[in-house]
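Listing S7. Sequence submitted for prediction.
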Amino acid sequence: MSNSRFKSKLSQEEINKNFEDTDFFEGVMSGLEEARAYEKGAARLATYARKRSLPDVDSVQLRRDLCMTQKDFAIVLGVSTRTVEAWETGRSTPTPTAKKLMYLISLDHSLVKKLLKPA
């Protein structure tokens, strides 16, 4: 495992910036405190996700860069065509999961083919 290397298109500065406001020790300690409280019956399991900053991705531009229709783009993302229309007209915003998926696709367009393959 010592020979494992993580490859990224991000520069070291960009990676550092993504984590500059993250206190990993605080996150671990908070999780341990929640687990101890739950074990003692003093708390319920948290059903929320910790807020993280999400990259801004222009869904219209990404769809156009991929040369896709709204219908095809919706299929790739696992949402309805109406949902994509709502994002593009500003009636709604993508969910955090959709934002992350669009961000990953924007970094690597080949993911579209992988997402369309049957399981």
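Caption to Listing S7: primary sequence and predicted structure tokens for the chain studied. The mean pLDDT is 82. The CA atoms of residues 11 and 17 lie 10 Å apart.
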